[in-house]
Each structure stands twice: as structure tokens, then as C-alpha cells.
Design a protein that fits this description.
This protein has about 150 residues and is α+β, with helices and mostly antiparallel strands. It is built from 5 helices and 5 strands. The radius of gyration is 20 Å and the shape is globular.
Length: about 150
């Protein structure tokens, strides 16, 4: 039992323990296909909801890992080029269920409004990304929905 002037960890020591846990987790996630998250804003202030744009890719068998990486890197760069992207996440399939039907990569792009999504869809940077993607794309699946918490 601790007295009122003792604690199990000082603030500095606690912070170091948190970093010791988080830093390896982030490094491992990045090495083994973990998601990348970029966040700018929260939900639409009027509705409290977020517009989610879910994109899944199945790449051509002829595309090399380096070419797939080029596509992924180009998609991951879009939040730095298109300010209307409120949030961005990426991940590589690791489901044990075997229901992915060849889709290997999933991207979740979030917008605060339909206007922001439309700006994204027609933005020059998005169009340039699509040109990088096209030669390697076997199938794409896109689902958009309004999400609330």
C-alpha cells in the first residue's frame, strides 16, 4: 500500500514506460503492414457524422511488390496534397477468414462533407494517383457511408 506522498511511478518514469511500449508497437506495425493514420478534423459539426470512403484494391498478378508499393505510397501521399481529406487510414489484409476475394489493400478516407468528397474525387492529385494505379489494378471496390458514433 502506498502512502499519500508515494506513487508506484513518477510522472517521468510513467512517460518513459508508455514510450517504451508505444514506440516498438508503431515500428512493428509499420514493418508488418500495419495501418497508417493521418487525422485533421473531427465529424461534420452539423450532423456529428463522418463521411467514410472505403476503397479496396486487388492488384494484377503481373504487378511486382515494388509496383504495388509505388501505388500504395502514392495513395498514402494524398492527404498531404488534398486538404479536404479529414482522416486517412491504410491497412493490408490479414484476415484469417479467407473471404477477401483477392483484395489485399484497404484504404479509409474520411471527409466532413459530400462537398469535400467531391473536391477529392476531382482533385488533380487524385487524378494523378489514378493514373499510377490503373496499370496495376485488377479490381476495385468502393463503398461510401455516413458514420456516427
Amino acid at each position: 500500500m502506498y502512502s499519500t506522498n508515494q506513487s508506484c511511478c513518477s510522472g517521468r518514469r510513467w512517460g518513459m514506460m508508455v514510450l517504451a511500449i508505444l514506440i516498438p508497437a508503431v515500428v512493428l506495425a509499420s514493418l508488418f503492414g500495419g495501418g497508417v493514420v493521418v487525422s485533421r478534423t473531427v465529424a461534420n459539426s452539423e450532423s456529428g457524422k463522418l463521411l467514410r470512403h472505403v476503397v479496396q484494391f486487388k492488384f494484377k498478378d503481373s504487378s511486382t511488390p515494388a509496383q504495388v508499393s509505388q501505388v500504395v505510397d502514392a495513395f498514402r501521399a494524398l492527404p498531404t496534397k488534398i486538404s479536404e481529406i479529414a482522416d486517412f487510414e491504410f491497412g493490408h489484409n490479414n484476415s484469417p477468414e479467407g473471404l477477401e476475394d483477392g483484395f489485399t489493400h484497404c484504404f479509409l478516407v474520411t471527409f466532413a462533407s459530400e462537398k469535400d468528397r467531391q473536391t477529392y474525387l476531382t482533385h488533380a492529385a487524385h487524378m494523378q494517383f489514378v493514373e499510377i494505379l490503373k496499370p496495376h489494378l485488377d479490381k476495385v471496390q468502393v463503398i461510401d457511408f455516413w458514420a456516427g458514433k
